[in-house]
Structures are given as C-alpha cells and as structure tokens.
Amino acid sequence: MSSLTAEQVMALAPDTSSAKAAGALSVPARWSGLGGNSRAAWGECQGSGKTPYQTQVDLSDLTARCSCPSRKFPCKHALGLLLLRSHDSSAFQDATPPAWVVEWLESRASRQQARAEKTARQDGDPSAKARRQEARDEKIRAGLEELGLWLRDLVRSGFVSLGTQPYRFWELMAARLVDAQAPGAARLVRELATVPASGEGWPERLLERLGRLHLLVEGYRRLETLPPDLQCELRSALGWNPDAASVLSGPAHSGPWAVVGQISEQEERLTVRRTWLSGPQGQEALILDFAHASTPLAPALPVGTVQDAELCFYPATLPLRALVRQQGSQRPWRGPPGHPDIPSALRRFAGALARNPWLERFPLTLQRVHVWPPGGRTAVWQVQDESGHSLSLPASFQGGWSLLAFSGGESVSLCGEWDGQTLSPLAVGNAQGWHALTTLGFSVDLPQETEAAGVSA
Question: Which stretches does the entry tag as region Disordered (predicted)?
C-alpha cells in the first residue's frame, strides 16, 4: 500500500483519545529501531516501563500488532507509527525487518494461505456450493417462520407491556435469527428494543418496524415468484449477499464520483463504515467497509474529493451498494448541486423506497438550507430551505452549535442520511469547500430512534 495521508491515518483511530495520543507519538524522538519496506512498517516506542513496545503494521491491510497492553485496535503506538510514516517516509524504505517482525508476517501469511486454500476448495466444487446455499435457505425459512409467529404474538397481545420488557426479550428472537443465518433480520429485531423508550409516538414507530419485518417474512415465503432483482434485495435485507468476486465481474459504472458523506459506527463486534458517493446524473452509491474489533478499517475515501473510479453495483431493484473495481486520480471537490429544496429531496427518497421497501436510510444532499436551533415549536435542531420546509435532526445530535457556527448564519449545503423521520448530518459545504462533520471538531451521533417527527412546512 502506498503511503497514507495523515487524514487517512487519523480515520483509523478507534476514538478521539487514541488519535490525540498518536499525534504526540508521531515524532522520531519517541522511537528507536524504525524501519519499513513495501510490506510492513515497524519500530519500538518507549512507554512508561523499562522495555519499549514493539509495534508493527502490515501495510497490505493495515493490521497492527503491538506488545503494549492496550485493547484498542489499532493502539496509539500503531497510529503514531503510521502518522510518523505519513510525515516522513525516509526511515521506512527498504529496511531489513528484525526477527520479531519476520515471525509475525510469516505467521500471518501462513494463516492467509490456509484460508485461501480452503476457499478455493469450496468454490471449486459447484455441487458443494449448491448444497451450502440450499442448507442456508432451509435455515432461513425455518427462522423466518418462527419470526412470523413471534410477530403475530406481539400484535395479538398488544404493545402495552412492551415498554417494560428487558433487552433479553428481544435478544432471544435475534439470537434465533443469527442461528438461522439471517443476520440482517436479527439486527432489525435488536433495534426494536430501543423503540419503546424513544418517546412520544413510539407505538407507531414500532408498528412500522414490525411491518417491515413482516414484509421480509412474507416476501421470503414467495421468493421464487419475485423478479430476480427483488429477490436479491430481499436476500440483502436478510444479510445474504453475493460474494465480492461475482459483483466485481459484473458491469462497471465509470465516474467521476464525488465523496459526499461518511460515517463509522459499531454493530455488535464489527466496525461498519458507510461512504456515500454521488455520480453522473445524480446516481447515489454506497461503499460499505467492515472490520472486526481487533482490526482497523481500510483507508477511507476522503470526503470532499472527486474520485475517477469504476464502481460495480450489487444486483438490486435499487442499485445502491457498490464495490470499487478501479480507482484513479482524485481532486478536491467544492460541493454537489444537490436538491434545490426539501420537497424534491423527499420525492427522490419516496421513489427509492418504492423500489426497495426495506430501505433503512438514504442520502439527501440539500442546497441552501439554514440551521435552526431548538426552540418555539420544536425541541430539536432543524434545517430549513428557502421555501420554509424543514427537516428535523436527531434528538441525540450533538453538533448543532458547531454546525450553526460553521454556517455563520448563512445558508449552506448539507448531506445527511434520511431514515424517514430525521436527517443525520454527515457533511456540510459552502463556497470554501465541502467538509466531513468529523473534521469540524464534533462527532456525529446516529440514534436508534428519535422522538421528533421529521418534516414540517
């Protein structure tokens, strides 16, 4: 992997404290035995103890290992090492790795080869692949039948008692769906646990989510009768996606693609990053990256840039999720045309929802909106277009005052994720450029549920 920028290194940090500590460690005086080559970077960082910490990073996928006791991945020492390399790569060129680095790299290579050979054996046997798919289909059908019974029981018994149900009540059904190899449905069930505590109007929001799950159950019962693209959409909602190789072998869509917004969040033991792109004729695209808690995400596409890239979309009635097949040059971007007003943006969302009824979030990029603080008729932050139409931001959104300060009271362009009720801001722009909210000094909190209704005029 080529040298990372400081911004890309900081994007790997598991939290702000690690990023801050890494900055203090990114000076040569804190290190000894610095070295690197095309495969790895390494060094020994003096900590509070007598023995320095041995830190190493595999540059092929940015997996790091350090002898420090930290349970964060990557730790501040690995981040500091990469940050130092981004500032000055001269100490990391064509060096011979010490024995402790060689041993780790060889161990990793051996495990990767064993996994690749196992995958090759499985993929090389079409009949075995068909048997695995058939077995998964049977598990999913059994799990969804159980989910259907559970949903009917919930509706039959009413919602009154659900507000006092413990988390375990929802987790038992979610765990059953995980066993049935339907992780997407399991996640939707887990999210139900937060709805009764989400404030006024929660029964309506709960019923909406139960309806979405019911549609999954009924749709899978009739899977063979659905159009192929809708079958793919339904399987995707359940968490059953085609492999990356088959997607990348499909048709490519050339850019330029503008990186309009990005957010990372935790889902169980995974870190998930969503990167939203805007392409020719306003085509939206979503790049999803996943990493286990013990490994960092791959370097992100920088928000506020235009990428000359080829994307391959997953088969769907609403092509949205994509993989990057080929990435070319990038350049700064001043911001998108976006929707001229909120009604036109909501019409775009309505069209997308009509094509994919399991759509959970959709990117909206708005032109010339003003940021309004809570007060008067609303208890939450809002953005308002020049015609007076407004969208509510999540009740948990912590960046309102910083967003208002950035705007200076003037209108700005803004990109956010719309979930049907609230808009979660991801990036903002003005005449000077387009910026991820995380680079403006405040965090983006994505709630499970919000109390406010989302649209007003």
Answer: 113-136
Q: What are phi and psi of 309, to 5 degrees?
A: -145, 160
Please state the pTM of the whole predicted model: 0.80
* In the chain, where the domains are located: 6-119, 131-238, 251-332, 342-456
Tokens for 84, please give them: 């130092």
Tell me the C-alpha to C-alpha distance, in Å, between residue 342 and each of 122, 253, 337, 417, 418: 49, 28, 14, 13, 11
Q: Could you report the per-residue pLDDT of 390-434, keeping only the tens digit for each?
A: 999 998 898 899 899 999 999 999 999 999 999 999 999 988 888
- Give residue 382's pLDDT: 95
